[in-house]
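Researcher: We plan to redesign the surface later, but first we want a full-length starting point. Tokens attached.
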């Protein structure tokens, strides 16, 4: 699902917009959320 997200009919409009317009920021936020969920240290970059 994350490999090919459907940004034409998203469940989260803000995430879809960021995925299209600012992929680097989207990936940073996604990485931090995954780390937080798994209790891993978050990247600082």
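Model: Full-length starting sequence:
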């Amino acid at each position: 699902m994350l490999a090919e997200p459907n940004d034409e009919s998203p469940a989260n409009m803000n995430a879809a917009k960021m995925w299209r317009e600012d992929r680097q920021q989207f990936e940073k936020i996604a990485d931090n959320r995954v780390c937080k969920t798994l209790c891993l240290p978050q990247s600082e970059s």
